[in-house]
Amino acid sequence: xxxxxxxLLFIGVLCCQAAWSQVRESVSILGDSxxxxxxxxxxxxNEVWYYARHGGxxxxxxxxxxxxxxxxxxxxxxxCVNNSYSGATIGYTGYDGxxxxxxxxITRSDELGCPDIIFVFGGTNDSWAGEAVGEYKYDxxxxxxxxxxxxxxxxxxxxxxxxxPNTKLYFIINSELREDISSSMKTICQHYxxxxxxxxxxxxxxxxxxxxxxxxxxxQVAKALK
Length: 226
Fold this sequence. Notes:
Layout: H1 2-21, E1 26-31, H2 67-75, E2 78-84, H3 105-108, E3 117-121, H4 124-128, H5 149-163, E4 168-173, H6 179-192, E5 195-198, E6 204-205, E7 208-209, H7 211-224
Parallel strand pairs: 1-2, 1-3, 3-4, 4-5
Antiparallel strand pairs: 6-7
Helix pairs in contact: 2-7, 5-6
């Protein structure tokens, strides 16, 4: 009987290990228009740029053609939350100097579920909208600080690290951004010890990735994280 109990215990341990090994890590995205797709946003009220029906913005008309869907599927992960919002800025200053705080990355940063991996893909609208970079500031922020890029980016990074402990955090930096925006993102990531992925030569139409461009992003992200 004792030997049988040991055998059953051993089998139980093996079954638990097998079940644990099959648990897939989950991915959440905090992004802008580049990471949107109709019907796949959380919350669903977020503004979308890529639609299932072809609207002429680019040639992308299937969610399987997006960079994040390709990366998640090819890497064996599962999607947790895609909280992307078309036109969103990391800081609070949007186009024509308007207040973009309701859609900003900071405002949405608590709504990413419980992921194992977080991709932050932003800075594009900050660059296009002409948001001032401001000064580097790594503590004692106030709301007024978030209307310039560097304090907003630093706060966002600090907050994500504290809000999601034991989660892998990665920033994706778009190609063709203003140099002061892209260099600021790299400097802030380095300050916090967060890995960033600098994209290069992404195929675009109307400023947004095409099918080819999304495949290039997925490939470059996968290569950087091997």
